[in-house]
Design goal:
Elements lengths: L6 E5 L5 H15 L3 E5 L15 H27 L4 E5 L5 H12 L3 E5 L5 H6 L3 H8 L4 E4 L9 E5 L11 H17 L2 E8 L7 H4 L9 H22 L7 E5 L2 H11 L4 E6 L12 H6 L6 E6 L1
Parallel strand pairs: 1-2, 1-4, 2-3, 4-5, 6-7, 6-9, 7-8, 9-10
Antiparallel strand pairs: 5-10
Helix pairs in contact: 1-2, 3-5
Length: 305
C-alpha cells in the first residue's frame, strides 16, 4: 500500500493550539489525508541524555515528557472522534524551525500547519522567529493559522505576480493557483485571483529616464504597463480556468494592498508564494510574505519553490 502524505500540524502550547489542531483536522478531511500532531514544547533532552545528569533530573525529564504526551494526546481526541487517522509526536530537536523542517523532510507532508501571532519589530529585524525561518526554509506548503474560524463557504485569495522576472516559466504562479484550487474545490470556496502591480507613478523619477528618448508621457507609459500586466494576468487566469469576474488587478504595492483587499473581500485564506533561488549560498525569497503576514486578517498559505 502506498504511504499517504500527512498533514503535519505544529502544535505550540502558547500559540492557539486548539485552533491549529482544528484547522489541521479540517484540512486532513478535505484532502483525505492522515494527520500528525507535532508538539513543540520545552526540550527535556538535556535533562536525561548525558552521564553527568542526576537521577532526579532524569525523573523530572520523564515527568515532563509524560505530561507532554498526555497533552498532545488530549488535543488529538477531537480529530480522532471524526475518524481521522492521527499520530502524535514531541519535537526533540532544536532550534525549533530546524527541527520542524527535519521532521517534515521525513514525513513529506501535504501541508505544514502552524499557528502564528504578531511579531515584534526586533523579531522581524533579526529574523530569528520560527515563522520567518519556516518561510525561508520549509520546502513544503506552509499553512499559517490565525485564531479565527473559517466561513462555511470560504473566500480564498490567490496572490500572483505574472510579471515576476525571477519566475520566468511562471511555475510559482501555477503552484499558487493549483494549491488554491485544491483547497477551494472540496471546501466549496470562492476563489479570487489577485495581482498588485507597481504603477509608473510609484516607480520613481530615476527609473523614468529609462524610457527616453521615446518621449512617452507618464500617462501613456502607465497605460501600457497596466495593459501588459493585465494581459499576462488574464492569460494566467485562462490557463487555469478562472473567469474574468474572479480575476482582479490593482495598482500599488502588494505589501500595502494585500491586507486591505483581504479585509474588503472577507478572505478566509490568502495563498501566496516564496521564490527560492540558489546562488552564492543565499536565497531570494518572497519577502512580501514576510512583510504582510502580521497585517493579513486571515490564514496564509505560503508555497515555496
Amino acid at each position: 500500500m502506498t504511504k499517504r502524505s500527512p498533514i503535519l500540524a505544529v502544535v505550540e502550547p502558547d500559540i492557539s493550539p486548539r485552533e491549529v489542531v482544528e484547522r489541521a483536522a479540517s484540512i486532513a478531511e478535505l484532502t483525505d489525508a492522515p494527520l500528525e500532531l507535532l508538539l513543540c514544547d520545552a526540550d527535556v533532552g538535556a535533562l536525561g541524555d548525558t552521564i553527568y545528569v542526576s537521577n532526579e533530573a532524569r525523573d523530572i525529564a520523564a515527568q515532563i515528557r509524560s505530561a507532554q504526551e498526555e497533552q498532545i494526546d488530549e488535543l488529538a481526541r477531537p480529530a480522532r472522534s471524526r475518524d481521522i487517522e492521527v499520530k502524535t509526536s514531541v519535537l526533540d530537536k532544536r532550534p525549533v524551525a530546524e527541527g520542524i523542517v527535519h521532521v517534515a523532510l521525513d514525513r513529506n507532508p501535504l501541508y505544514v500547519v502552524k499557528g502564528t501571532q504578531y511579531h515584534s519589530d526586533a523579531e522581524r529585524a533579526i529574523l530569528l522567529d520560527t515563522d520567518w525561518q519556516l518561510i525561508r526554509h520549509c520546502p513544503f506548503p506552509l499553512w499559517l493559522v490565525k485564531p479565527r474560524p473559517l466561513a462555511d463557504k470560504p473566500v480564498i485569495m490567490a496572490a500572483v505576480d505574472p510579471m515576476h522576472s525571477d519566475d520566468e516559466p511562471g511555475r510559482l504562479d501555477d503552484a499558487i493557483i493549483e494549491h488554491a484550487k485544491a483547497i477551494a474545490g472540496p471546501s466549496r470556496a470562492e476563489l479570487q485571483l489577485f495581482h498588485a502591480y507597481q504603477p509608473m507613478s510609484g516607480v520613481g523619477a530615476a527609473a523614468r529616464l529609462n524610457f527616453k528618448p521615446d518621449k512617452l508621457s507618464v500617462d501613456e507609459i502607465s497605460e501600457k504597463m497596466e495593459k501588459e500586466h493585465r494581459a499576462r494576468l488574464d492569460a494566467l487566469a485562462a490557463n487555469h480556468g478562472i473567469d474574468p469576474a474572479h480575476t482582479h488587478q490593482l495598482p500599488g504595492s502588494a505589501r500595502d494592498l494585500l491586507p486591505y483587499v483581504a479585509r474588503d473581500w472577507k478572505a478566509d485564506l490568502v495563498v501566496m508564494g516564496a521564490l527560492a533561488r540558489g546562488g552564492g549560498g543565499s536565497d531570494h525569497i518572497g519577502r512580501t510574505a514576510e512583510r504582510v503576514l502580521d497585517h493579513l486578517p486571515c490564514d496564509v498559505v505560503i508555497v515555496r519553490l
